[in-house]
Amino acid sequence: MPLLAFLLLAAATIFRTRTSESAMATRHAIVERMSHGMMVLDWRHRVVDLNLAAKRLLGAEGQEVIGQDARDLLAAWPELLRIITHDAAAYAEVAVNDGQPEHVFDVHASPLFDSGGQCTGKLVLWIDVTENKAAQAANERQRFALAALAEREQVGRELHDGLVQVLGYIKMQAQASSGALERGRPDTANAGLQGIAAIAQEAHEEIQDFLLGARATSRLSSGLWDAITDFAERYSVVYGLRIDLALPQQAQDIVLDPVAQVQLLRIIQESLTNVRKHAGASRVDLAATCETYCLQVIVRDDGKGFDPHEVPGLDDGHYGLAFMYQRAEAVGARLDIISAPGRGTTVLVQVPVAQQAGEYATTPRG
Fold first, then answer.
1. Given this model, what pLDDT does residue 127 score?
2. pLDDT average per 10 residues of sequence, the chain (366 residues)
3. What is the CA radius of gyration of the chain?
4. pTM for this one?
5. In the chain, helix, strand, coil percent, each to 5?
6. How far is the C-alpha of 365 from the C-alpha of 356, rounded, in Å?
7. Are residues 284 and 300 in contact, defined by beta-carbon separation less than 8 angstroms?
8. What span, in angstroms and rounded, lies between the C-alpha atoms of 189 and 204?
9. 43: helix, coil or strand?
10. Regarding beta strands 294-301 and 283-291, do their DSSP bridges make them parallel or antiparallel, or are they unpaired?
11. 3-class DSSP state for residue 146?
12. H or E stretch including 263?
């Protein structure tokens, strides 16, 4: 029998027969030795019974609390007041820090009914989930670390391949410019040096993008939206691009799988890189909305736009947009790029949202 169901039965028995010796013996055997806190209330929220663990949690050791109004006893616990005054079963998560290491409790308040179906009171149960929370947090940190490491390795390979090409070009141009000077052709040499300066500037920006992205990825363990906000603000400062954020709390409350968070962040990064390189935009709107079973992220610029059907793809050596589509597909998301010449560009990412509480909003495809 599940713990909560068993305790509901025990609490109902105690509530009905608490004056008998057998009930007191049952109470001592069942609830007084429990590590979980347990309190029974009547229909007017008065304390009918509570065990030693509950007294300790409430700081009521040595006090006579039987008959007290639980709303007075729990005045410092607004979340508990909410669930004990709720008509139906309710739940809250509370943290207790009374000078000791913090403990986290799942607190359940469940109605008690008599044989006629009349509500006679409530059972309030504190279940210590500190160790479970610590294990979950450790597992979460590991998942983020692995996701960030995999992403860092992939981006590092991309950066390495790009730098190899850049350095090869610079070497070739430097040799050509040196030869032009030796042949008395300063104009040709100057053009070559200007080409070197341009490609070096582009490589410098690529490295800046890599460092900004690496910093944002490393911040994901503290929250996706904090990482996105930090990245957007720094990108705006480095490149002088105005980025307006609209991240409502409803969207921020959605929790994505760590791998999905990395991929969504990288899609946003690539979108902003494309704006910087190609759009000639003065402003970017970065927004998130919560739709039915869907987290929607929008990156919209006021740049010159383009015809999406005429953009070179992966086969032509152009990787940016192709990688964005691949990243979206890897986590079951949908990516749409909406643009037209002279009308700016909108990147729309739709990430599926879990329908069950406690699940990730999306899970990467295996």
1. 83
2. 48 49 56 76 87 80 80 83 84 72 82 85 84 68 61 62 71 80 80 77 70 68 83 86 89 80 88 87 90 86 85 50 84 90 92 60 46
3. 31
4. 0.52
5. 55, 20, 25
6. 18
7. yes
8. 22
9. coil
10. antiparallel
11. helix
12. helix 258-274
Please give the single-letter amino acid code of residue 226.
D
Tokens 């759009």 correspond to what residue?
279
How long is the chain? 366
Place of tokens 């410092």: 76
Q: Is the dihedral of CA 164, 166, 168, 174 positive or negative?
A: negative
C-alpha torsion 317→322→323→328, nearest 10: -170
Q: How many helices (H) and strands (E) does the chain have?
A: 11, 10
Phi, psi of 189 (to 5 degrees): -65, -40
Query: With contact defined as beta carbons under 8 Å apart, do 8 and 98 qualify?
Result: no
pLDDT given for residue 365 in this prediction: 41
pLDDT of residue 204: 67
CA separation (Å) from 5 to 10, 36, 37, 158, 309?
Answer: 9, 14, 15, 56, 61
Structure tokens at 68: 């007290």
Residues in contact with 131: Cβ distance below 8 Å, sequence separation at least 6, in sequence order:
none
> Could you tell me the two tokens for 278?
């190609």
